[in-house]
Amino acid sequence: MAAKYKKKCYRCKSKYVLVTWKDRYPVCYECQEKELSGEITDKDMIKFFDIPEEFYRENGFLRSIKINYLRYGKLTEPQVDAFKKTVAKMKEEKE
Q1: Terminal Cα-to-Cα distance of the chain (whole angstroms)
Q2: Do 65 and 79 touch, CB atoms closer than 8 A?
Q3: pLDDT per residue over 19-77, tens digit each?
Q4: Per the domain annotation, does 47 fall within a domain?
């Protein structure tokens, strides 16, 4: 497991975000909240993105996948698989 540390948000520069060495431009949940609030019309995708908001708050990768779906209207299979794997891992850690 990679070491985690706190770094200031790239946009607002006031809130701290938990990051690893892989995160180039960390952005806090509050700065991305407007982008995440778009409307999803596909019933399968509504169910797919129906995870606890806490997961989105903690994980920038999950936020980026949802933002990409809202922006482009579709996801690739590797994106879907990675999203599912990450959510399963977070649920497992929660228990």
Answers
A1: 18
A2: yes
A3: 888 888 899 999 999 999 988 999 999 999 999 999 999 988 999 999 999 999 999 99
A4: yes
pLDDT digits (tens, 9 = 90+) for 9-19: 999 999 999 88
Tokens representing 6? Answer: 């706190």
Instruction: Find the length of the chain.
Output: 95
Residues facing residue 5 across a β-bridge? 19
Q: Is residue 73 part of a domain?
A: yes
The domain in which residue 84 lies consists of 26-94
Task: Report the domain count for the chain.
Answer: 1
